[in-house]
Specification:
The protein is mainly alpha-helical. It has 12 helices and 2 strands. The chain is elongated, with a radius of gyration of 24 Å. This is Prophage PssSM-02.
Length: about 260
């Protein structure tokens, strides 16, 4: 549940801000109406509500309504939109990728999995969007804070990159990110870590001799893969598919546990 709770002074100040916003939009509002709206919004943080009022002044045409404020307050809760959520969900298809996702993304992906497994990606996306919007709507109605968690992939370097990015985007706290890295026995980002990121971004960076050796080993491994026989390649693909199936099964199990806990609350 949300931990925000305004005191009486904050509610009164918010009511005054609502009146001022309505006036700035060319509307006269009864102070009692503004006070009632402030009471309804008191479960949210003061900065979030004030930011929503500011957005309303620039974006809303016509009279200020409670729905306009609430829509913008909820959109600032850190939950991604359905398109971004789907892109995050699809990243879990790569068993080497570490993915930082919300409870709603994980449960919605489990709901869409049968359609996705049948090969209907368009239908799977529609099923995912429907489930995701329902779950997000319910979570916002219940005033639940967004919960980001980590689904660990096999590639250690990608773990560092994914967790570091999640911390930078404020999806997980810095302290929690450090704990994840420590629990996974991954050292914090070093010069070599930045060199790995530089390869992806195109920036200039100088890896250490040891890391250059690793890059050379990866290159040799890729060359060996190209030269492998068709039978060896098939075996590698089967192994990767089995590992991916195991990971997706784990994600579904975790999603079912989340849904069961949510239903029990």
């Amino acid at each position: 549940m949300s931990t925000f709770e305004m005191d009486d002074q904050q509610v009164a100040s918010l009511a005054a801000a609502i009146c001022a916003t309505a006036e700035a939009m060319g509307q006269e509002m009864n102070p009692g109406t503004a006070a009632m709206m402030a009471e309804d919004l008191c479960a949210y943080s003061v900065p979030a509500v004030k930011a929503a009022l500011k957005a309303c002044r620039f974006e809303v045409k016509g009279k200020l309504a409670m729905a306009d404020i609430l829509q913008r307050v909820q959109a600032a809760d850190g939950r991604p939109g359905k398109d971004e959520a789907w892109a995050i969900a699809m990243t879990t298809n790569d068993e080497f990728e570490t993915v930082v996702l919300t409870d709603e993304i994980q449960v919605a992906l489990a709901a869409a999995k049968p359609v996705l497994d049948a090969g209907d990606k368009v239908g799977a996306r529609m099923a995912f969007n429907s489930a995701y919007e329902r779950l997000v709507g319910q979570a916002r109605e219940d005033k639940k804070n967004v919960n980001w968690h980590v689904s660990v992939g096999f590639d250690a370097n990608r773990r560092t990159q994914a967790i570091t990015k999640a911390v930078q985007m404020q999806r997980i706290p810095h302290e929690r990110g450090q704990l994840y890295l420590a629990d996974l026995s991954v050292a914090p980002v070093t010069e070599d870590g930045r060199a790995v990121v530089a390869l992806l971004t195109g920036d200039v960076a100088q890896p250490s001799p040891k890391l250059r050796e690793k890059f050379a080993a990866v290159k040799d491994s890729m060359l060996a893969m190209r030269q492998a026989s068709a039978e060896e390649k098939t075996e590698l693909r089967i192994l990767a598919a089995n590992e991916l199936a195991d990971r997706r099964a784990l994600l579904i199990q975790q999603a079912e546990q989340l849904e069961a806990r949510s239903a029990a609350q």
